[in-house]
Amino acid sequence: MYVGKATLLGFVIAEPRFYPIRWAGRDPGCAAPPGSGNMRARPGASSRPGDHGSDAESMLISNLLVSSAILLAVAPAVAEATPSLQTNHSCYMVGTPVRITGSGFAASQPYEVAVDGVDFGLSTTDGSGGFSATLRPGGLGANVVQHVDILRASDGHAASYARFTLTRATGARILAGTGAPATLRAPFQVWGFALGGGKPAPYDIARSRQSVYVHYVNPRGHLKSTILLGATGGQCGYLRTPSRRVFPFVPGRGTWTLQLDTNAAYSSHPSGPTARIPVSVS
Asked: I want to staple 151 with a disulfide (CB 3.0 to 4.6 A). Which of 17, 123, 162, 253 is the partner?
């Protein structure tokens, strides 16, 4: 759970850190087309080895060439193995190891793995062209809450790709610093809502796309209002809204708690992913 701090003009908002068939023509020595039933020797034609021979021989050779061409054209192509690459999860919290598995690569050959162009070294595939390995990607930059990484594996002849997302622990923030509480507009940003208990989980559309609600809790701990903020998406449950009213009403003074979760009804101990943003109004 991320707990951020905000204040608005009264209040300040602090952010988290892709054969041809060649038909043989009839022999020039044939006086009639092959198959016409009227075969005659061409005047002066010889049957000695090295010459054209009889019309019957020419027909036979021509037919054999045609048959060979047809066989070549219809012979099935030999299928080549297509390399594949996958990770054991689609969403990872920063610092969590990523388990990768490959198959269909050249057998017993060196392969290399890279994430966003950063080389993670070489190893060797097994006798069936497969491999498994564990790597730990780099972190996230300041103020970056998640990033989609591109994974690549290659044996020098063929390559395969996969993608996964790195995220911070479940959290939310208002992308504004200060302003008048009654009129301030700013985007809301939510991340990590597909994490299960703060840990990576297999990719699940139902978990990745969830409705997010904001419950406005006044300084005395009582619910003032609840609104639907939007739906998360991506591999880790991310949402960034357009600019909108931070408060859908005029708030009183004191520290308000904006609780973001996936429940339409407010609870101080909600189930599922939750983030809270304290907002100080003066």
From this structure: 162
